[in-house]
Amino acid sequence: MRMAKTSSTAGKTVVAVVTADPVFEQSVRATFGVSGAIELRVVEGDIGSVGQLNTEDVTVVIVDLDASRSEEMTALERMMLRSGAVPPVVVVTQSFDVEVARSLLQMRVADFLVKPVPPVELVRTCARAARASGTEATEAQIYTFFPAVGGAGVTTLAIQTALLLLNNGQRVRPTVCLVDLDFQHGACADYLDLEPRLDLKEIEPRPERLDRQLLEIMLSHHASGLEVIAAPNRPAEMRTFDPDMVTRLLDLVSSNFDYVVIDMPRTWFSWTDNVLLGSNRPFIVSEMTVPSIRQAKALVAAIRERLGDGPKPQVIVNRFEQRMFDSGLKKSDIEQALGGDFAGTIPNNYQLVREAIDRGVPLDEVKSGNNITAQLRKLMLPQSAKPAATAGIISKLGFSLAKSA
User: Which of 109, 195, 280, 360 has its CA 20 to 30 A from that of 310?
Assistant: First the structure.
């Protein structure tokens, strides 16, 4: 399978940190060090004493600066002149005033933060800086489907989206992985008539053991070419897994596939924030009922409150039907309720979906050109003709927050 690569370090986003503050260094290591897809380089000492910093293959540089010391400001200015603002530099300082801000802007630093810096804010700032400079790795596009209510049809939409991305007409067929994170009631493997091979007991005690070779053993291979990660159901076990395990799994998958599609459980776990933060296109799936629409609207608000300026979720209304003279919900009612958060509708075709599930085959194999696939193609493919070069660092750094967020 094709590995994502940075400009010089294969499969890695490289974050370089210059700091003389042990507390800040510990925070940085906890924030970035958990991800196998990120190479963290810490240079101990202040910017004035470390000498010339080698930034040849670095994605983003974080400089912990004492702005009150003129020698450190001068050293930063020299570094910016040498590098030409590539890679982008994010400055973290203990003090802040108008003169410091003016000086940093004149040096063309990408951004600056004031201590104490929340890990989430540091990650977002680095992601924005890397996106703006175009120094990011080509990384998986990550689609995440989250149910507003039980039985909304999330698994069907996740599977069909994964198959659409696999067969989206590119000259070189992309690699696609479907990840079922509903460890209690997940049904992706059942829907595709596959044996789930993710052994949670094997990797939970030591998530760091999960490497490319072990991942290959735990992948289920569908005849279409779709790869699936799913664990055997444990309906009687309500377990909360260590966020490190989920983080490591998603880091590894996102570094080895062009597209990743995630089927989320309805329950909000300790790792849910990080999965959503690492997603490029998060979707909330609702039914066409008033309570479901209300739940979807509340979920959008909750996610935006928790993730701030992270990825913006959109709502898909599944099993949509519009009959003439029907007194129930109309599309205009949904649009009014959800506003700009409304992505679109998927038509109701229960017989087609039931047959595809019972046979363990894609919808198109039951009926080519069916209305569900046609509508999903409109919603999913226009922005995803190829994996975006700016998708990488936010996914990698988003997942890396599992310990520190």
Answer: 109
Residue 84 vs residues 58, 74, 88, 231: alpha-carbon distances, Å? 14, 15, 9, 48
Element (H, E) at 107: helix 98-107
Q: How do residues 236-266 score in pLDDT, each as one tens digit?
A: 776 667 777 888 888 888 877 889 999 999 9
d(CA 377, CA 235): 33
Mean pLDDT of the chain: 82
The answer to whether 278 and 142 have CB atoms below 8 angstroms apart is: yes
d(CA 303, CA 87): 31
Which among 367, 345, 392 has a CA at the least distance from the CA of 35?
Answer: 392
pTM of the model: 0.66
Side by side, which strands form the sheet with 281-286?
A: 220-221, 227-229, 176-180, 259-263, 141-147, 281-286, 314-320, 342-347
Distance CA 136, CA 125 (A): 14
Say if residues 273 and 146 touch (Cβ distance below 8 Å).
no
**Two structure tokens written together for 97:** 């005033």
Domains and CATH numbers, the chain: 13-133 (3.40.50.2300), 141-386 (3.40.50.300)
Upstream peptide bond of 282 is cis (omega within 30 degrees of 0) = no
